[in-house]
Design brief:
Length: 301
């Protein structure tokens, strides 16, 4: 969160939090004719300038000045009311609840990661981490027809979630030799693609060795500190390491359509619903002290 004015919003802390949210349209601005008052919508929270080289190329997620509603200004999901550009707002069909609508954002992160990766139907996949994004990747891969989904996770409850959402194999890096197990599962060669949703050095080391020759490791995680890579582990097997960031235009609508069609069924990601006055005790503190037993905690405003 910006401690100095953000280049686009001109806001800085303190700010209203919340970048994964849904709600009802209360009013529309002049010239907006494709939304009506009362319509149920979700918010794509990326803030971008639209003028830098990345934006002009269509990579709004890579904007030189990028930010997020709920992190960089313009209000957030915990606001009672919020005013946003039309481009941020997506209608959801009657078959998609507002609660599930609030899950579109993290699912879009996974959807984009799989989109930009070289994954194709029939590939074997390793996912590091069974948190919200890792579980979203599992669901996305299942919707795309992945036949071998392997998840590496320590927490017992998250292992259960991974199986529930479609992982074919769930490994524990504190007990299993991840590299050996993945190779064993994948015909002795290793996974075609791996997704890092954990951001842990030990996991990174394992994932690089667990992908096959010319395989790809896709980093989704936001790292808290520097990581190290031995380039030779990439070079001599012609492995690839790539980064992905959030989502681009089209991903939100694709996720909404996938939920509406039943290809994605993310309801079980919601592990608790709370009121605004319970956010500190049953929201933030729970995610600090008991995060392994929760995926998404929804706040009703």
């Amino acid at each position: 969160m910006p401690t100095t004015p953000h280049p686009i919003t001109k806001e800085h802390v303190p700010l209203t939090l919340g970048h994964e949210f849904s709600g009802h349209v209360e009013a529309v601005g002049e010239g907006v004719e494709d939304l009506r008052v009362g319509e149920r919508v979700v918010v794509q929270p990326i803030i971008y300038d639209g003028t830098c080289g990345a934006c002009k190329a269509g990579y709004i997620n890579c904007c030189d000045n990028n930010g997020f509603v709920g992190l960089s200004g313009w209000g957030g999901g915990l606001s009672e009311h919020i005013v946003l550009p039309r481009s941020c707002v997506f209608s959801i069909p009657d078959s998609v609840s507002l609660e599930v609508g609030a899950l579109v954002e993290p699912l879009a992160v996974a959807w984009h990661a799989v989109n930009i990766s070289p994954f194709k139907k029939g590939d074997s996949v390793l996912i590091l981490g069974g948190g919200p994004i890792g579980l979203a990747v599992v669901q996305t891969l299942k919707a795309r027809g992945a036949e071998t989904i392997i998840v590496s996770e320590v927490a017992p409850r998250r292992k259960e979630f991974a199986k529930q959402f479609g992982a074919h194999y769930v490994l524990d890096p504190t007990k299993d030799d991840i590299v050996a197990k993945v190779r064993e599962i994948c015909d002795g060669q290793g996974a075609n693609v791996a997704f890092d949703a954990a951001g842990v050095q030990a996991g990174l080391d394992q994932a690089i060795l667990a992908i096959r020759a010319r395989g790809t490791l896709v980093n989704i995680a936001v790292w808290e500190k520097s990581a190290s890579i031995l380039p030779n582990n990439l070079v001599f097997r012609e492995r690839n390491y790539m980064g992905v960031a959030t989502y681009v235009k089209g991903d939100f609508q694709d996720v909404i359509d996938a939920i509406a069609s039943g290809k994605l069924k993310p309801e079980a990601m919601i592990t608790r619903k709370i009121k605004l006055d319970e956010v500190e005790e049953k929201g933030f503190k729970t995610l600090i002290h008991d995060k392994d037993n929760h995926v998404k905690i929804l706040v009703e405003i």
